[in-house]
Structure formats: C-alpha cells, structure tokens
Amino acid sequence: MEVEDSIAVRRPERWSEPMDASMDDADVLWLRSREPFASMDAKAFPRSIPLEGILRNDCRIKRCEPGEIIVREGDYGNSAFLVLAGSTNVIVDSLSPGQMGRSSPEKMSWFQTIRQFLRHPRVAEARSPEQVTTAVDSPTNKSSIRQIDDRPAIFLQDFSVVLRDHTSVELGPGELFGEVAAMYRSPRTATVIAATEATLLEIRWQGLRILRRDKRFAASLDDHYRKHWLNVHLREVPLLRYLPEPSLLRVAEATQMRSFGRLEWNADYKRTRNLPVEQQIESEPIVCEAGRVPTELVIVRSGFGRLSQQYGASHRTTAYLGKGHIFGLEELSYNSVRPDNTPLLSLQNTLRAVGFLDALFIPAETFAADILPHVRRTELPQRAADLMLQSIEQQSESGADRRQNARDEDTAASRNIDVESETGQQFQQTALLEFIVQSRLNNGRQAMVIDLHRCTRCDDCVKACGNAHDGNPRFVRQGLSHDRLQVVEACMQCIDPVCMIGCPTGSIMRDEESGVVQIHESICVGCGTCAAACPYGNIRMTEVYDHQGRPYRDMITDMPIVKATKCDMCSKLPSGPACAAACPHDALVQIDLTESKPLQEWLDLRS
Amino acid sequence: MPVSSFRHRRRIAITTTLLALLVMLGIVWVQTGRLADVSLLTGATLLCCLLLLALFGMRRRLPILPVGSVSVWTQVHIYMGFFTAGVYWMHVPNLIGNGVFECSLSVIFLLVTLSGFYGLYASRTLPKRLTAVEGQHRFDRVEWHRGQIADHARKLLEELSVHVGIPVLGSFYTQHLSPFFNSRPSLAYVLVPTGGRRRRLLSDLKDLERYLESEGRSTAGRFAALVRRRDDLDYQFALQLRLRLWVAFHSILTLALLATSLIHSFMALRFAG
C-alpha cells in the first residue's frame, strides 16, 4: 500500500478508558497518604505505568451506605476492594437468595405447567409488577435497590438483624477483600456488607496486577492467598487427593502462580474468532513449549489452554485444557521413574493460553518427591505406569508381593476417576477440535448442539421454548456451524461466566445446585452489562410490558424498563429443558463442551 | 443420554415390530382356521393403532407434558406405522375397497401410509442435503435474505464506475439478474429444485467476460457469487417448504382418516349382526 493511502489514528493507550474519569490529583494524593500506598515504593513501577497512574486510572473511590451489599457470595468480579474508611462485614455463613433480592426459581407442578401453557399472555414479554421491580407500591415493601451517587446499589433488608443472626467478620480501614476472585476468576466466597457508611477503593484486576510490583504488597497478597486458599485449591485437584498433609504443605510452599493472556478475553473474542487458525495459534501466549524438558507440572486454575504440535509449517491443535486439567504429567512422571541410562522425555505438546489462562506451577523436584509417590499407578500415563511397574517388579522378588501389587492395581483402577482429564480434552477430528477452541465453545457447560444431519428445521424446539416461557422463545435456531454440528445461540451456562462480571445488583448469578446462570428479573436494572459482556451474544435485552400490553416505564427518567433475558434451562419446568424434549428426531442436545467425552459419545451414537 | 446407538435402537425396534406382526398374523391364521370372522379383531387393532398414531400429533403440540420425549414418541410412531400397514393388509380383502365410502377410506389410509413412508425417507435424507448447502437459513427469514441479496446486487451495479462495463452488465442485470433476484422461485423449482438456472446464469455471466475489463470482470464475479447465494437460499427454501408441507399434508389426512375410520367402525359394528 502507498504511504499516501495510510490513515493517521491515535493508537489506543493503556489508560484510554480510566475506571472512573472523575478521579483527580487530589484523590490520588489523598490515596498516596494512606496505607498500603503510602509505604509503596514508586520506583518499583515502570515509568510508563506509574503508581499514581494506577491509582488514577485503575481505581475508583466508592461510597457505600449502611446495609449496602458490596459483593455477593457466588458472584464473579474483576475488582478487589480496599476499605478506606468505615467498616464492612463479611458474612461467613451463606445468606438466603431472598435476602439478596433473588428469588430462587421454584419448580412448577404439572398442573401449573399445563395451566401456563394454556394461558399464554397475548402480549410478548408480559410481566407482572412483582417481576419487574422489588419496589411494588405497598406500605410494607421497601425497595432493595437504591441509587447511590451515580450507580444503582442493592441493600440488605434489616441488615442489623442479619448481622446479629449470622457469623460475620469485621473489616476496617486498610483491609483488602475480593482480590482472589478478581485475580483468579473464581466466584466470590462470601457476601460483604457495609456495616456503617464506608468509603472503599475499588481496584480493577489490571491495576491490582501491576500493584504487585511493590514487593511488600505482593508478598502480603501472596501470603494471604497461600495461607487461606492455595491448600484448598490444591486439595481440589483429583491427582493430589491422596497427598498426606505434610506433602501437601511442601507442595503448596513450592507452588508458583502465573497468569497468561488477557483476563478480559471476551473483549477480543469477536475479532480473534475470525482469524485463520494458524494466526490465532501464533497470537496465543506460550505457557510451555514442545521440545523442552519439563521443569514444572502445570495445573490449570482458570481459563483455557490449547495443546498443539508442529505439523509442517504450522501448529495442529491436539487437545484443549480447562479448569482443573493438568499439563506435563506424562513427561514429568516418565522422567521421574526412568532408568538412569535413558534420555529425558521432553514436552510433546506446546501449551498456549487461549484468551486467558491462570495456572499453578509445581516444580519437577517437588512433583517427584511429594506427589508421584502418592499417585495411583493407573492414574499415570501409560508409559510412566509401565516403567513404574517394571521397576517395582524388579524390586519385588516374591510372588506374594506380585499378588499384592495386582490387588493394589485393581483397587486403584476402581478409584480411577480423573485419568481422562490429565492430558486434555481430545476429539478424533482436528477440525472439530479447532472449531471448538477457536470459537471458545469449550467454555460451555450446557451448549445447545444440533445435529444438522437429523434436524428437519421444523423449529419445534423454538416453539417448545416459547411455550415454556409465556410465548417468548429464549433462543433462535441459528449459530456457528461445523460440518454436521450447529452450536445454537443459546446460553451455554459457561464455566467462565464473563456475563456475571460487573452486574451492579447481582441480578445474574449461578445457581449452585444446577449450575444454571439465572437472571433475577426483579432486581435487574436493565443496564445491559451482561449482554455486552457475553462474547457469544446469548443474552438479549428486551422491553417488558404488562398483561394489557402497556410498556413499563421508569417513573423518574420515563425510559422504558428493560430486562436481560436468556435460556434458563427451563429451571421451573418439572421436565427440564423443553427444547431437547420437543425434538422429534434426536437432533438437539444440551451438552457439556468443557469435556470432550459427552460430545464424542453423542456423535458416536449417530455414526 | 441414551446408552445404545441409533443402529442398535433400530434393530430392536424392527425386531419388535416384526414379532408383533408375526403374532398378529398367527392369531389371524388360527382364527381363520376356526372359520371365525377376524375382520373385527384386525379392525379393532387397526383403529387402536390409528388413535395411538394420531396421539403423536397432540404430543408434539404439548411438549411440556411428562409423557416421554417427543423423539421416543417419534420412534413409536414410526414402527407402529409399519405395524398398522401390516394389520391393514390382514384386514382388507382388497387393497382398495369397494363402494364409494370404503374406497375413499382405503385411499385415505394408503395416502397417509405412503406420506408417512415418504416422511420417514424425507426426514432422514433432506437434512443432509440442507446441511450440504452453504448457510443455514431459517425458513421465516428466507424472504428477508432474498431482499438482502437483491439489494446487494442492485448496489453492485450502481457502484460500477467504468463506462465499458455499464451497458454490458446493466443490460444483463435488467434482462436476467433482476428477475432472478427480485422474484420468488418458480413452482417447478420449488417442487424439484435443480441447479439448471444457476448453471445457466453463471455460464452467461462467464460468457460476458470477454466484453469486460478488469473492474467489470470483478463485478461479474461478485454477481456470480450472489447468484450462488440466492440459489442456495432457494434450495434451502424449497426443501424446508417440502418438509413443512409434508407435515401439514400428513396431519390433515390423518384427521380425515380418523374421522372416516370411526364412521367405518360404527357402521361395521352396526351391521355386524
């Protein structure tokens, strides 16, 4: 292209969009006078990202009123909170959904289901006033949503009684909370309420990450994580479930935590999805490279990983990894048990972060000393297991020993529950694998998949969905296709639910029992944050009406009341998802794509 | 999720249907040997089967009922359809009955049966043909897509800036492309969608190339892409319409069959003696 053809634009900068545009120099100076920022070493930060810049652009000061819910248990968030003034209470035991303004979906009886089917409202998206707002005119009913400064906030009703009846821990000035959920994309583990009028500093994860350049601050965060969370996270890994406590402590001590890629992967998704696969693979940050001798065992804590192998001039995807999956086990275990005269096994696959990947790294020495002795042989990859067996057979001379080994093996085989997840999720076809990874469908725990070779396009699924939702279907039969599979644009109840980040009232949340991401409409303020965040476009904002067809309007702004709507897996229906039940040709299924096995089995059924 | 494959399921269903038919045939054979009138037995079986088959239509319209998934009902419907055809063969002395009413009844039955067999064939083959075509278009959006393609084609012509190409492509657009893009496919195409008109238009566009310079050729190429898109869309429309019309045809005839069968049963019982 000719130089004259080029277009001059301003390159976006790191802080082109500050978290709060109203933060000024006075605020930054005030924050610098308070701990932990007062004792931070400004020289520890790069010139391009100074400490003052982080405070100005990656933070916002938030005023909370007594009883305001700051974070809710089960929510996802990408920011941590530092108490600057006032006090907040962490509710140790869980609050009921009703106390947080959420109404748990009650299963309808068959009679109610049939009555609902027969009495569809004639108006689309019709709601009763109780479904639209918690502030229904009634002398006893006070709204749980109020406007604080320029944002809606949700309040706990009778919070003093709640505090009295529940165990809580008070957090005062200088104390930080919510950083684990923000850094590692995990659900909040407790609800935090403002006990008095409180001033908080909300720090988004990008800023929090840079603040870790200050050694004291990083050490305090790491200490807190190691002290309270790392052991819990390690214990959740199936491979480590038989580790005795002293070994686990040694493993925890040696474990390193590292993140790759961009936590807000959904912002780039639409662009990267359309990249040619080879370009996409090239752009993904490398976590471990094939051909190198493994030095650490990698346990994926959150995000997604792609395993690939060099094939010709490009890389070919061989598997994908997700939360809880392990990388490097085969090579490390082989290297640990191999005879001295055999060469070391190097990594066979390259591990890359697809969007974002956060992992725990356990050094090879720790793995050999503290983990391998406690792993069942049947849970090890075949090569290492064979070597281990040979070495045991050489050592044990008596037949009794061999019989004992055989018994051990049988027992271990019966307990073997996680072998398949150790080396990633694999499909037989590379193209299908790459389609799933490229489209980030491996995020879906209940992805709606249609077999196009059996689907007669009758749309009975859509009609059934409409019947189950007062005449308002929650999906349309369209979406990404690969070969005979179509992944419909319906909520996949993702394992990494980015839609749940940033909801100002906590209206969207995952049901702990069913795993379904639910929208509690009465506290949905219609801001559209969830719909904008969903990279797959599976949440739709819709105006709501009463049963006579009159639109609901906000009494202050006169703007229409809008609600977020999405597939709720027909949680209220006694029969489960209506779409799958209505398909006459076994063409539609809601399936877990975070694992390859369910889809592979489903495909095998029809092959 | 079912544990057995579709092939296994099919094998079990076919075996069960054949066994049921053999049992029925045995009973008819024994009863005939005893000089008993088996038409009442086969007729009653036939009526029960028809009622059960018709219930499938109701089940489809009430997907929320707790009576098994619609796909299970479909399987039962298919194999019960085969069984019913067999029982019909045992029931009637001739394939087409005598008299106006009996003749109509047997013709309707045969039409329903044949449309059922065709439906089974169509529902197993047409989806693959639909999938083989580029783009998965929803039936209710076909008209909108047609409009989009027509608009796109018109804009392509308007954007053409080279004078040499304007008359050539302009006249071809007016005579051939505009009628193609701005009208619905013909009934003949909808009934039997073929690649004839697509091949003809693409070949004509190819022939125009010698009259065009590079920009004109590029525009002709884009017209060709739009022709392919539109033809694919019409193909999807034709096949989806066929599937929908078949369901409507089969359902309406089923209702007529039920009504005539009930009248026939009433008359048979009335004059059974």
**N-to-C series of helices and strands of chain B:** HHHHHHHHH
Tell me the CATH superfamily of the largest domain in chain A: Jelly Rolls
| Total number of beta strands of chain A | 24
CATH-defined architecture of the largest domain in chain A: Sandwich
Question: How does this structure look, described?
Answer:
The complex is a heterodimer of chains A (607) and B (273). Chain A has three domains: 27-101 and 149-211, Jelly Rolls, CATH 2.60.120; 234-421, Sandwich (Jelly Rolls); 439-605, no CATH class. Chain A is built from 20 helices and 24 strands. In chain A, a hairpin with a 6-residue loop joins strand 20 and strand 21 (517-519). Chain B is mainly alpha-helical and 273 residues long. Chain B contains nine helices and no strands. At the A-B interface, helix 3, helix 17, helix 19 and helix 20 of A face helix 3, helix 4 and helix 9 of B.
